[in-house]
Give the backbone structure.
Amino acid sequence: MKKKKPTAIPLSHLLGHPDILNRSLKTERRFAENDPRLYDALIDLLTEKAAAGQVFENGRKPGTISPIRAAIRKALAAGAELSNEQLWRMLVAKPPRGFTFYDTKRLGRYIEGSTADKGMEWARFRNICAEERKRLSG
């Protein structure tokens, strides 16, 4: 059975149903931009939802670390004097499962994971190395 593609519903139809606003805020905002009353109603509804708060179900559990951070932590525990370059080369030689390391002229150094949100750029890699050094020395 094929899923139906969600259709854009005008904000005026949704004002009585704030839970439907999660569908496509971008689409609803486009409807509301032409009518200031609808736009204000949209902001009011979203503010009300934000005040109620919502539990995040996705993401990493507190206290857990990424496989890349774990590999950096393990390497620094063995030799805290390793530079970022040396750490990068060590991880390129034996990358954590599911990660691929790239060093390109155009995009520079970066790490790709199994999904788009699991990657890392060179700047973030350096920051994690610095955080882990600080953690070990502190």
